[in-house]
Structures are given as structure tokens and as C-alpha cells.
């Protein structure tokens, strides 16, 4: 209250201010006493007596850092050296679009960072660039993704050598800015029902691209409203039948359609382009709508890797059915999802760092006649932020694994890996982006009023990231793909089919996890047992296996009366829970592996602590499920809860080191409330005192 009434706190005695600051800083540098009341100390008592973990941030950071830090630093250095390319807080939609384009051109042509070559050859490097670029401005990350991953990726992944030869350099250097035109006004998730038509004209050897009705207008297309010169258009391939009186629908294929003149930038004849207008976020990206009125393109513009048309109008494909061709086409586009999952973790790191650094500094209330305490010392605040920090670490390792598997899949084209990466990218993209979207609200709220100042970034992060939940596949739809995949593998298990690495726990599941829970282990509640990775992983796997088995039984039962579609819908929530449970199981398994593989003992101890918090917090959140089947006895449930709270407190004591290990450079300090010291003076400077 005193400070509140004092209009100029800096006018006090300097020595007193310095001593108060030192006192405050010492509060978050030193661990505070164990918060557990005496009666609760059976759990964690030994650990409670332990001093704060010593964490070597450099070593931890070195372990977390991918192999492509150099190129990320180049990105940061470039934008730091070009202040005129930094996005100001207040900017109109049109100016933001132009700035975003100049940022991308600067990155590619001036800084010489050319992401396109890595899309196919070194995806991990491509995603590292994407992460760095996205933290400069998320619109720039998405603009880059549209150009290289969507437009460029469709050309190199769905086309053949002739397309690479013709388009690679133009895409690479940004002389051929392009779009990925899949979504239509009436069809977003249901891509197989797209209506845009590409009819082959055997006389002129061309395809005629047509929008048959308003519902088929291509909508939300990135790069279309202003900058795009080409579009990969997804359309139904129509071939005249032998008597030329009718056409056969060969299903959805991809075609390169020029939309603006290369030199004049005029919209080409037969094409109508409209602007999708101001959006909730990502206004640096120019989303537009496209209509085609009998636009003619050469036959060569069909991206013909999975299906081709000969000069005389004959269709050929190495894949026997429309469904198989469609699956192969979409399968080549999973890179976008991998990128979104990976970038979403970067957003979570950024928001968590800002919120945690601020919460360490901010003080409100305290014991009578004692200094006020840091808000992160409140149990409720730890409960909001520490499990989130643990999840961020967990997601970091899971998405790094995904990137690794994706790169391996691109290298080997191994069929099993293709299926694995498809389901894993769908699941992680859905799970991580939904989690980050929820967490951005928590971070804003945990910084109180200052979290609401635009300069502190939560507003932009939240608005820009929100759509990650929808594009590149709506999360609810993607989770259903994961559930579908699990059911398929469950059936294969009974037929003795192979199970790939990510799924092989299902093989054991039927034998051990689904037997009745062991009444003896259900009562074990020692700290050692609860922190044993075997107990934690078993608990996750048990839950997934039960969900899988029970939903399979329910589906079988309902299919008899409701048919396949109706039965699926009747069990939909169950299926979504199953998919999330499976993804959490994969995430935990990868986290445990990362802890075990960490070579530095101090970094390993810190990771182990964080991993235990992740696991026990998740088990506690689902404790009803475990109690219902007596997987854990009542006292064990209580012990899990207490230990999770205690671990949260332990993680709080090393929270600063844990966020420092994310190694986020100046882009974090752009938020004045996240400054590590002298936060308030930075903040007051910002508002002009
Ligand atoms: C900013 C932005 C940029 C975009 N960029 C591009 C681009 O460059 N190129 C492009 O082609 N597209 C782009 N899109 C489109 C985007 O990919 C689609 O919006 C997305 O695929 C979802 O489709 P939809 O909007 O039609 O939603 P719908 O499919 O209509 O979904 C609406 C709601 O219904 C639910 N739902 C739908 N089906 C089911 C189901 N089977 N079970 C349960 N629930 C269901 C969903 O969960 C969702 O909540 C962009 C969109 C935006 C907003």
C-alpha cells in the first residue's frame, strides 16, 4: 500500500531501496522452506531436507539444444541488425502484410538463409529456422511455412523431376511466391469432398480448372490476397470417357495454376481473387479467396507423382484405388503438421518464460512485518505454472523425436514409418497446440494486469497461435485419425501383424495391462515407487489399453444397430480420450528416455524431477479413472497428490534455471515484464517515466 500511495518510489533513500531489492532478489534465488505441514511429510520428507538442486543451466541447455542453433542465431542476429524490419506493436493489416513480405525477402535474399533446400534434405534444419523466424513474428513463420512447406512442399513432394527443375529456384528465391489452395468455402476438414474440377481437354492437351459453385471457392488461402503468383490447386481430376459424352471422376489431385502475371502482377484472366480481410491474429499473412472460371493450364501442370494422364487422356497410377492415392497425397503433406507441433512448443516456451520470470519477481502480500513474497511462492501459482513448465519440457523431447522420425521417413520412405509419423504428427499437433492455446490464457492471467499490456506479448501470442488448433487439420478431426489408427493396430495385433516402435506397448498391453490391477502394488505408496518410471509408464499404458479395449467393444456393439458412422459418433468422446491418452503415453515414454540419456548428472537430476512432476500430475488429473478400477488404492491416490504438489514446489526452486535453459535470446526480453532484474524500471521506462 505504501508504494501504491507514493507517486515516486525512486525518491526514497537509495540505500534502503538497494537493500529492499537485494532482499527481494534473494527470495527467488534461495529456496524457501518446505511448505508441507508436519503431518504430510511422510511423502517427500527425505527430499524436503535436501537443498535446492544445483542445475548447470549451460549443460542443461546444451542437452536441449538441437544441432541447428547456429542458423537460429543467424536469424536472430539478422533481425537485430535490421530494426526497421521488426514488427511494431501497432500496425495496420496492410502494413503488416508488406512488412512480413519484406522480412521474408530480407531473410532469404539479404541474410542468405534459404529454407527451401532443407524442406526435403534436412527437415530438422528447416524446422529450426521456422522456430526462430516464428519468434521474430509468428506471421513471418506462417508466411514462410506457406511459401516453402505448403506451396514449395506440394511441388517437390507431389510433383516429379520436371516440376522441381522448373520451379525450385523461383520458389527458393521468392521470385515465385505461391499458395496452397486446398480448403473451399463448404469443405475444410472433409478434403475428399472438394468440388473444384480439373477437366482434361484432349484436343488442346490442357486441364480446365473450374469453380462449379460458390461453395467451391477456395477460401483462407495464404499468400493469395496480395503476394502469390502461383497456387497449388486441389481439384477433382475429370477425364472424358471413351465416347466423350461424360467424364470420370478420378478423385482429388493437385495442379499448379498461375494466378498473377510474373512481371506485372496483374490477376490472370479467368481468375478472381478476394481478400479474406482482418483476422483475429496473423494479420501479416494475406489470406484470400480464389475462384476459377474455365482457367486453362498445360497437362504438365498436374503434380503427377501419384497419378498421371497421358497425351491421349489415359490415367495411370502405381496406386490401385482413389483412397490409396488420396492417402498418399495427404501423407506427403504431414511436414506442415510436424512444423506446427514444433513451433507450438516454441510458443509455450516463450509464454512460460515470460510468465515465470515475472512471477519470480512480482511480490504481493507476505507474513506480518516480513517482506512481501514472490507470487510464485503461492501454492496456487505453482499449481498454474509448474506442471505447465514440466509439460513444456515433455513436449520439447516428444516433438524433437517427431522431427527426427519425420527426417528418417523422408530419407528412407519406409512404409511402416510413414504410418507411424502420420499418426504421431496428427496426435502431437492436436495435443500440443490445444495445450499451448489453453496455457497462453493461464500465463496472461498469472501475470495479472501487466500481462494484459500488449508490449508483454501474451495478446499477440494468443491471437496468432489460436488458429494452430484448426489449420493443417482441425484438432478434433486429427485426434480421430489417431484413434482410428490405434484401432487398426489393435485388430492387427490379434492377427499377429507387426507393430512399430511407438505402438509396440499395445502388444504387451493385452497380456499384462489388462489383467486385473494388482491389489498389492495398488497400495504401494513410497516416494521411490511413485517416482519409478516403470510405475509411471505402466499407469499411462494401462489407461490407454483399457480405453482401447473398451472402445473397441463398444464400437462392435453399436455398429450392429447404428452402422459404422453412427457407432463412431456414439463413441466419439471416448475415442478422443483414447487418442489423447495414447499421445500422453508416447510423450512420457520419450521424456523418460531423454532423462535416461542425459549425460550430465546435474542436468539429469533436474530433468528427472521435471519428468516426475509431469507424470504424477497427469496421473492425478485422471485419478478418477484409476480409482474406479482400483488401479490405485485411496491412500496411494492421496500420496500421488501430495508428491505432485511437493514436486511442483521443488521445480519452483529451480524454475529460473529451467526457463533459462530454453536459451531464448532477445525475443523474450522484448516483453519488459520478463526482464530478469530491474523489471519494474524496464517497464516504467517503456511507458515513458
Ligand atoms: C488463418 C487461416 C489460414 C489458413 N490457410 C490455409 C491455406 O493456406 N490453405 C488452405 O487450403 N487452407 C487454409 N486454411 C483453412 C484451414 O485449413 C481450415 O480452416 C481447416 O482445415 C478447418 O476446416 P474448416 O474451417 O472448414 O472447419 P470445419 O471442418 O467446418 O470444422 C468446424 C468445426 O466442426 C468440427 N468438426 C468437423 N468435422 C468433424 C468430425 N468429423 N467430427 C467432429 N467434429 C468435427 C471441428 O472440430 C470444428 O470445431 C486456413 C485457415 C485459416 C483460418
Automatic annotation (TrEMBL):
<protein>
    <recommendedName>
        <fullName>Acyl-coenzyme A oxidase</fullName>
    </recommendedName>
</protein>
<dbReference type="GO" id="GO:0071949">
    <property type="term" value="F:FAD binding"/>
</dbReference>
<dbReference type="Pfam" id="PF01756">
    <property type="entry name" value="ACOX"/>
</dbReference>
<keyword id="KW-0560">Oxidoreductase</keyword>
<dbReference type="InterPro" id="IPR046373">
    <property type="entry name" value="Acyl-CoA_Oxase/DH_mid-dom_sf"/>
</dbReference>
<dbReference type="InterPro" id="IPR012258">
    <property type="entry name" value="Acyl-CoA_oxidase"/>
</dbReference>
<feature type="domain" description="Acyl-CoA oxidase C-terminal">
    <location>
        <begin position="532"/>
        <end position="676"/>
    </location>
</feature>
<dbReference type="GO" id="GO:0033540">
    <property type="term" value="P:fatty acid beta-oxidation using acyl-CoA oxidase"/>
</dbReference>
<dbReference type="GO" id="GO:0005777">
    <property type="term" value="C:peroxisome"/>
</dbReference>
<dbReference type="InterPro" id="IPR002655">
    <property type="entry name" value="Acyl-CoA_oxidase_C"/>
</dbReference>
<feature type="binding site">
    <location>
        <position position="222"/>
    </location>
    <ligand>
        <name>FAD</name>
    </ligand>
</feature>
<dbReference type="InterPro" id="IPR009100">
    <property type="entry name" value="AcylCoA_DH/oxidase_NM_dom_sf"/>
</dbReference>
<keyword id="KW-0809">Transit peptide</keyword>
<keyword id="KW-0443">Lipid metabolism</keyword>
<feature type="domain" description="Acyl-CoA oxidase C-alpha1">
    <location>
        <begin position="331"/>
        <end position="486"/>
    </location>
</feature>
<dbReference type="Pfam" id="PF02770">
    <property type="entry name" value="Acyl-CoA_dh_M"/>
</dbReference>
<dbReference type="InterPro" id="IPR036250">
    <property type="entry name" value="AcylCo_DH-like_C"/>
</dbReference>
<keyword id="KW-0276">Fatty acid metabolism</keyword>
<dbReference type="InterPro" id="IPR055060">
    <property type="entry name" value="ACOX_C_alpha1"/>
</dbReference>
<keyword id="KW-0285">Flavoprotein</keyword>
<dbReference type="GO" id="GO:0055088">
    <property type="term" value="P:lipid homeostasis"/>
</dbReference>
<feature type="binding site">
    <location>
        <position position="183"/>
    </location>
    <ligand>
        <name>FAD</name>
    </ligand>
</feature>
<dbReference type="Pfam" id="PF22924">
    <property type="entry name" value="ACOX_C_alpha1"/>
</dbReference>
<dbReference type="InterPro" id="IPR006091">
    <property type="entry name" value="Acyl-CoA_Oxase/DH_mid-dom"/>
</dbReference>
<keyword id="KW-0576">Peroxisome</keyword>
<comment type="similarity">
    <text>Belongs to the acyl-CoA oxidase family.</text>
</comment>
<keyword id="KW-0274">FAD</keyword>
<feature type="active site" description="Proton acceptor">
    <location>
        <position position="472"/>
    </location>
</feature>
<feature type="domain" description="Acyl-CoA oxidase/dehydrogenase middle">
    <location>
        <begin position="179"/>
        <end position="295"/>
    </location>
</feature>
<dbReference type="GO" id="GO:0003997">
    <property type="term" value="F:acyl-CoA oxidase activity"/>
</dbReference>
<dbReference type="GO" id="GO:0005504">
    <property type="term" value="F:fatty acid binding"/>
</dbReference>
Amino acid at each position: 500500500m505504501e508504494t501504491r500511495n507514493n507517486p515516486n518510489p525512486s525518491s526514497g533513500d537509495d540505500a534502503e531501496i538497494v537493500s529492499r531489492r537485494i532482499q527481494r532478489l534473494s527470495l527467488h534465488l534461495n529456496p524457501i522452506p518446505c511448505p508441507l505441514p508436519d503431518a504430510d511429510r511422510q511423502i517427500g520428507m527425505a527430499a524436503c531436507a535436501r537443498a535446492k538442486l544445483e542445475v548447470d543451466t549451460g549443460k542443461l541447455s546444451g542437452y536441449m539444444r538441437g544441432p541447428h542453433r547456429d542458423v537460429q542465431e543467424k536469424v536472430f542476429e539478422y533481425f537485430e541488425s535490421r530494426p526497421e524490419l521488426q514488427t511494431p506493436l501497432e500496425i495496420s493489416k496492410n502494413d503488416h502484410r508488406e512488412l512480413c513480405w519484406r522480412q521474408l525477402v530480407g531473410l532469404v535474399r539479404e541474410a542468405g538463409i534459404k529454407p527451401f533446400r532443407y524442406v526435403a534434405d534436412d527437415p530438422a534444419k528447416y524446422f529450426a529456422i521456422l522456430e526462430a523466424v516464428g519468434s521474430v513474428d509468428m506471421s513471418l513463420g506462417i508466411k514462410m511455412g506457406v511459401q516453402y512447406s505448403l506451396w514449395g512442399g506440394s511441388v517437390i513432394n507431389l510433383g516429379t523431376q520436371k516440376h522441381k527443375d522448373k520451379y525450385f529456384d523461383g520458389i527458393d528465391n521468392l521470385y515465385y511466391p505461391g499458395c496452397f489452395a486446398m480448403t473451399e468455402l463448404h469443405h475444410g476438414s472433409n478434403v475428399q469432398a472438394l468440388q473444384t474440377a480439373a477437366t482434361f481437354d484432349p484436343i488442346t492437351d490442357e486441364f480446365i480448372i473450374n469453380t462449379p459453385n460458390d461453395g467451391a471457392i477456395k477460401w483462407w488461402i495464404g499468400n493469395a490476397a496480395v503476394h502469390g503468383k502461383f497456387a497449388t490447386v486441389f481439384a477433382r481430376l475429370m477425364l472424358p470417357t471413351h465416347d466423350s459424352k461424360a467424364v470420370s471422376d478420378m478423385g482429388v489431385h493437385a495442379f499448379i495454376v498461375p494466378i498473377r502475371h510474373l512481371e506485372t502482377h496483374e490477376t490472370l484472366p479467368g481468375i478472381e481473387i478476394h481478400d479474406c480481410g482482418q483476422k483475429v491474429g496473423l494479420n501479416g499473412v494475406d489470406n484470400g479467396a480464389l475462384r476459377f472460371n474455365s482457367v486453362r493450364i498445360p497437362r504438365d501442370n498436374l503434380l503427377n507423382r501419384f497419378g498421371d494422364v497421358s497425351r491421349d487422356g489415359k490415367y495411370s497410377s502405381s496406386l490401385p484405388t482413389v483412397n490409396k492415392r488420396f492417402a498418399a497425397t495427404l501423407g506427403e503433406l504431414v511436414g506442415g503438421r510436424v512444423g506446427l507441433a514444433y513451433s507450438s512448443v516454441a510458443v509455450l516456451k516463450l509464454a512460460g518464460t515470460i510468465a515465470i520470470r515475472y512471477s519470480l519477481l512480482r511480490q504481493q502480500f507476505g507474513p506480518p512485518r516480513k517482506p512481501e513474497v514472490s507470487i510464485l511462492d503461492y501454492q496456487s501459482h505453482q499449481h498454474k505454472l509448474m506442471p505447465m513448465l514440466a509439460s513444456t519440457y515433455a513436449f520439447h523431447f516428444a516433438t524433437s523425436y517427431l522431427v527426427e522420425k519425420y527426417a528418417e521417413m523422408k530419407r528412407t520412405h519406409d512404409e511402416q514409418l510413414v504410418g507411424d509419423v502420420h499418426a504421431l504428427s496428427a496426435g502431437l499437433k492436436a495435443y500440443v497446440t490445444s495445450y499451448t492455446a489453453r496455457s497462453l490464457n493461464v500465463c496472461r492471467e498469472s501475470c495479472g494486469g501487466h500481462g494484459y499490456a500488449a508490449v508483454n506479448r501474451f495478446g499477440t501470442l494468443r491471437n496468432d497461435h489460436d488458429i494452430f488448433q484448426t489449420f493443417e487439420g482441425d484438432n478434433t478431426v486429427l485426434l480421430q485419425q489417431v484413434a482410428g489408427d490405434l484401432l487398426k493396430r489393435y485388430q492387427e495385433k490379434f492377427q499377429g501383424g507387426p507393430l512399430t516402435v511407438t505402438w509396440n506397448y499395445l502388444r504387451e498391453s493385452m497380456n499384462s495391462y489388462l489383467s486385473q490391477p494388482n491389489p498389492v502394488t495398488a497400495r504401494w505408496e513410497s516416494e521411490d515407487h511413485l517416482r519409478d518410471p516403470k510405475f509411471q509408464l505402466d499407469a499411462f499404458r494401462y489407461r490407454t489399453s483399457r480405453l482401447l479395449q473398451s472402445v473397441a467393444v463398444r464400437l462392435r456393439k453399436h455398429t450392429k444397430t447404428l452402422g459404422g458412422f453412427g457407432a463412431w459418433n456414439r463413441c466419439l468422446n471416448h475415442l478422443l480420450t483414447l487418442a489423447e491418452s495414447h499421445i500422453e503415453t508416447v510423450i512420457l515414454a520419450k521424456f523418460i528416455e531423454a532423462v535416461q540419456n542425459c549425460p550430465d548428472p546435474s542436468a539429469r537430476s533436474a530433468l528427472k524431477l521435471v519428468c516426475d512432476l509431469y507424470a504424477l500430475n497427469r496421473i492425478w488429473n485422471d485419478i478418477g479413472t484409476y480409482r474406479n478400477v482400483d488401479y490405485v488404492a485411496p491412500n496411494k491416490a492421496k500420496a500421488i497428490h501430495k508428491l505432485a504438489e511437493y514436486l511442483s514446489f521443488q521445480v519452483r526452486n529451480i524454475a529460473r534455471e529451467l526457463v533459462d535453459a530454453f536459451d531464448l535470446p532477445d525475443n523474450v526480453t522484448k516483453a519488459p515484464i520478463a526482464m530478469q532484474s530491474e523489471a519494474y524500471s524496464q517497464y516504467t521506462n517503456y511507458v515513458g517515466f
